[in-house]
Design brief:
Strand order of the largest sheet: 2-1-3-14
Number of helices: 12
Distance between the termini: 27 Å
Shape: globular
Structural class: alpha+beta
Number of strands: 20
């Protein structure tokens, strides 16, 4: 029964993805120096095909229309031989990419709209479970529908990251690109030449910095000694970077040895000062996936392609404040209604309309059907006029 449902869902999604690429193939945005990139696709039967290369955009578009992948990816790296095995490709550098995903933010509201789905029988649970209560299967999928609070939090974190990159690393705004991932996050890409050749270790150091890892009183000139601590203000002062953020957050208006000493004594000494730094770093440090940025051979979803986990498109955000992912990245025409069976009652918004679906069978627009079926929260029944 599960196999029949899956095949029917896949056929429905495949048909609409095919229609999307036929009508919107110009949405595909080729990466810089695409002839030096590795491309990869995911098929609707869950096969991954990598080490593809396209010298011309027309060749890539023809391949996509002919094969209709569920997902399309290209490498952050530039290679001399993109089709060769990974150790023989001839690495020439890589764009630096940051991933800001809802799962890393740990927002209180997430519990309200996160679902756990049995891979075997597709029963949906509200609470995390190690195995299905119905069939005892142990493979459980996690899916989240972002609410407006989630989206606003993701936007805020994304803007904070771009400010870090500009102010602390001197990266020019025109060399930073922000894209909605097509599901529950944003990608921030740095194209600036002096960052292209950084290895994984150097990128890991940058990740640690923006996340506020390993900050210490010593970085502010406060060193522990046998008398408790001693202070020596750094020559560069507290005018930029984490030093500036920390003293501003602590509301230290005057930077001097005497003033800082009085402040540390007031809050309880060296350890209390360190605890306060840790607290500030946790609050102001960015919540990103470190593995994404440090991987210099990673393939990323291509701009303009559809995300099979949502049916939404990865799209560049030129105005993050006005961007609405549930509207701006949804390209399916609602020219017909679709009958779907729900796996669980749902509340959500898409294309500016609120839905409260509490019946086991509902008739919804195409965009809603694609979204919920891609999220594995509903199944196709039939199309109606």
């Amino acid at each position: 029964m599960k196999k029949e449902i899956t095949l029917k869902n896949n056929k429905f999604i495949f048909t609409l993805f095919k229609e999307y690429y036929f009508k919107n193939i110009e949405n595909l945005r080729p990466p810089i120096e695409m002839h030096n990139r590795e491309f990869g696709i995911m098929t609707f039967d869950s096969r991954v095909i990598r080490h593809l290369s396209f010298s011309k955009l027309g060749n890539l578009k023809a391949y996509i229309i002919q094969n209709v992948p569920s997902d399309i990816f290209c490498s952050n790296a530039y290679y001399q031989f993109p089709t060769f095995p990974i150790n023989e490709k001839g690495w020439k550098g890589a764009d630096m990419i940051f991933d800001i995903d809802l799962n890393d933010l740990l927002l209180p509201c997430q519990k309200e709209h996160t679902f756990y789905i049995c891979y075997n029988c597709q029963v949906v649970f509200r609470d995390l479970t190690k195995k299905c209560h119905e069939c005892q299967h142990t493979k459980i999928l996690k899916n989240t529908i972002s609410c407006f609070r989630c989206i606003n939090a993701l936007k805020k974190e994304t803007k904070n990251l771009t400010e870090f990159l500009k102010k602390d690393f001197g990266i020019k705004e025109e060399n930073i690109e922000v894209s909605f991932s097509g599901n529950t996050g944003f990608h921030v890409v740095v194209f600036q030449n002096n960052y292209l050749m950084l290895d994984s270790k150097a990128r890991s150091d940058i990740v640690g910095y923006v996340m506020g890892k390993n900050l210490s009183p010593e970085s502010l000139g406060v060193r522990k000694d046998k008398h408790g601590y001693r202070i020596k203000i750094p020559l560069s002062g507290y005018s930029y970077g984490w030093r500036k953020r920390i003293v501003q957050k602590m509301k230290i208006s005057e930077v001097s040895n005497d003033y800082l000493n009085k402040f540390i004594k007031k809050i309880g000494g060296y350890q209390s000062f360190k605890n306060e730094i840790d607290k500030i770093a946790s609050e102001l440090g960015l919540k990103i996936d470190p593995q994404v940025t440090t991987d210099i051979h990673r393939i990323f979803r291509m701009v303009g392609s559809l995300n099979s986990k949502s049916g939404l498109s990865k799209i560049t955000c030129n105005n993050l404040d006005k961007f609405d992912p549930m509207t701006d990245s949804c390209f399916f025409d609602d020219n017909k209604n679709i009958d779907i069976s729900l796996n669980i009652p749902l509340k959500f918004s898409i294309k500016g309309k609120k839905y409260h679906l509490d019946k086991s069978i509902s008739t919804v627009p195409v965009s809603v059907a694609v979204f919920l079926i891609s999220k594995k929260l509903a199944n196709i029944i039939s199309c109606s006029s």
